[in-house]
Amino acid sequence: MPEGTAAMTPRTAPDALIAELKDLLGERLSTAAAVREQHGRDESFHPVAPPDAVAFAQSTEEVAAIVKACARVGVPVVAFGTGTSLEGHVAAIHGGICIDVSGMNRIVAVRPEDMDVTVQAGVTRKQLNEHLRDTGLFFPIDPGADASLGGMAATRASGTNAVRYGTMRENVLALTVVLADGRIIRTARRARKSAAGYDLTRLFVGSEGTLGVITEVTLKLYGIPEAILSAVCPFPGVAEAVNTVIQTIQTGVPIARIEFLDDNQIRAVNNFSKTSYAEVPTLFFEFHGSDAGVAEQVEMVQAIAAEHGGTDFQWARSTEDRERLWHARHNAYYAGLSMKPGGKGFSSDVCVPISRLAECIVETKKDLEASDLFTAVVGHVGDGNFHVLFVFDPDNPAEIAEAKRLNARVVDRALAMDGTCTGEHGVGLGKMQYLEAEHGRDALDVMAAVKRALDPANIMNPGKVVGV
Amino acid sequence: MPEGTAAMTPRTAPDALIAELKDLLGERLSTAAAVREQHGRDESFHPVAPPDAVAFAQSTEEVAAIVKACARVGVPVVAFGTGTSLEGHVAAIHGGICIDVSGMNRIVAVRPEDMDVTVQAGVTRKQLNEHLRDTGLFFPIDPGADASLGGMAATRASGTNAVRYGTMRENVLALTVVLADGRIIRTARRARKSAAGYDLTRLFVGSEGTLGVITEVTLKLYGIPEAILSAVCPFPGVAEAVNTVIQTIQTGVPIARIEFLDDNQIRAVNNFSKTSYAEVPTLFFEFHGSDAGVAEQVEMVQAIAAEHGGTDFQWARSTEDRERLWHARHNAYYAGLSMKPGGKGFSSDVCVPISRLAECIVETKKDLEASDLFTAVVGHVGDGNFHVLFVFDPDNPAEIAEAKRLNARVVDRALAMDGTCTGEHGVGLGKMQYLEAEHGRDALDVMAAVKRALDPANIMNPGKVVGV
């Protein structure tokens, strides 16, 4: 499925650069094949493209020194957090140096009174929430994987909680970034709002390492709600489930999570997580608020669901029950893969205006049902975002072609509805082919102009997001 | 108070350009002195700098044609909405053509089912909310002035509701923009979230016309709350009032508005709006939610206020009573000016992390009380944002110098607290001098690189935001 890799020339790191980085980092610079291989892949189907070496950085200053050394000889730099991206973001398709920031896992400052935190880029979301446990605060963005917060900022990640708390776009207050020439900037102060010049924070959020390397992230935090309640409810059909979501959002219920899983996905979840949900289109919910507020939300959502034939709510109130429920949901991708031993998966990620969501999913399901491929639909439907997981035999060209055909139809359908080809996974290698249809040539030219302005030698994760 | 205007060379529009635009626009191209004068000023103290001509555009395509004509001869373009900016944003300090978009006042599409709307840039926020009246939806961002939505996007405006609903940064879904060479782009689709490339929407929001001219804006809308309740409460001192705000925010109360007015500001309001509030530090509140939700919020805020000596709540429930209350608040600027006949005003706009807010305002009040100048403090304190209005005799250099001295101290204090020099007014001419202290030279270089990449001939509102 990888695209756009044809005409690229690897720019191999010269021995002198490797030696210079070895001097700087000692044992923390690795050229071992296994280490390079592990850093040349993410969780997607895109083929491995190992870097020439992996530099395990421990500070912003070290990242700056590595980038400076690479810039001097025009060698690419690819940042690496946990390798959980889904579009080949970390593949070193031009060769070069991978900067692994997983060792930059220090929580720099927690400021409960300002409800914000500054972390090094390698801190993962679970590590952060574990650290926050006694403060009464939490960081809500949850893409499923225990990704690094630097990586989540770089890909503009979101996930199940975004319908209430927003995405990384809304929750990053400031970044420390190493530029393509090794200079270090901070993109903003900690004030909650500012009109002091161009929004550099939002420029780097979602830039996927192509404009600079994110080394520190300052994030908004939220008070842990007084009451949290989760639920699962089966529906008679796809349209009934999705229309329940649409009406919930339009009514303004401040729901924290509202997730759709189709019949195939539920079957896969039951198989993988040993659950016994009815194998029909299903919604997973979570309500956050005061006791009274949650009760009010529940009452509204139950009434809406009942209008659409959804009456059999299963509730999860205790932390353990809620965790079990969301664990099953979070493993949906692996559950899908488990349905075809030896199969590989890839996932669409379209997002449409909510009024078009039912139509978009229903039409897509018709396509999928007419295919022999195993597919599963799961989605952050409160935002209009859903994924189709395609599971195929990587050695069977006909299955690969079928997955590509179905995926292209999902993307075309979403774009025709004024939607986007990627709600949260990012562009990487896999979505570059759709950006012109989504944004138009002239808007892509603006992106390319920004890329050239900030990275004139094209060394920052080259060949991703936007061609130059 | 204007800064940075010294070394600028006006690039006067040649007669041939004026003739070309006259051909294009007929009567809608004006070179009348009064029209030019009116378009060379905003509501600030910055001196008038009239453009060479004013083009009254009626469509995106017309704006594109005007920009193309200007680009061919390297003449500056300054976009103009309602002229209610506060930092000299529209002053044509290099000469050139002003594009007045106030005639682009068409509401292009209201989509209640998606809770969004697309408007031409000249639509004002009051016009939009009037139009939405029967839909049950509203657009919350309220900077006081009845500004154009294009201008609000261009300056990253916010105001009294931002504490709950965010600023223009969070509420613009997509923009149509005319680039510096006259090409037209749309920055994003209408999906609520997207990870499809660089965030062009956020790049243009807050760029103050220096990267392109915004011609259409797609905005999020919100359901009008079931219950709205406003209140005014006096406090024994500045610290008590501000600490009530801090605790309210830290408790996570989803308050819609929480505004601070100091004793001088209340005195000015009483004088100007014929109200009779106690002339002490005061908070103005607004609560949005369900009936039960508002009751719960009120209970929590009353308890917090009582701990800080704020017990005398005056409630406003009916639309008329609430409008009277907020009308008084919105006229705070004019009320302040009324305290010194013939006086001119300018306003600081710092924003700090909320934990530092009480200290910042208390220290600032000490400075102000030691001065003979009339000053008033008013703020969107839920965000950490407040304004000091300095009122002075424009013919008295000592008073001007004193205002500048006090203002510089407020900015320095905010920056030392990891705050910003401008929370919502934008940079324009007046704040350029503070950007290096706020962002550092290297981050400013990134802004300048972006500016040069998108506007290589420096014709888009030149001399504002960032020097190139």
Features of the shown structure:
homodimer; 468 residues; alpha+beta; Uridine Diphospho-n-acetylenolpyruvylglucosamine Reductase, domain 2; Uridine Diphospho-n-acetylenolpyruvylglucosamine Reductase, domain 3; Vanillyl-alcohol Oxidase, Chain A, domain 3; 3 domains; 7-stranded antiparallel β-sheet; 5-stranded antiparallel β-sheet; 17 helices; 18 strands; 37% helix; 19% strand; disordered N terminus
**Poorly predicted sequence stretches spanning 5 or more consecutive residues of chain A:** 1-7
Largest sheet of chain A: 7 strands, antiparallel
| Bulk shape of chain A | globular
* The CATH top-level class label of the largest domain in chain A: Alpha Beta
Query: How does CATH name the architecture of the largest domain in chain A?
Result: 3-Layer(aba) Sandwich
Count of structural domains of chain A: 3
Oligomer, anyone?
homodimer
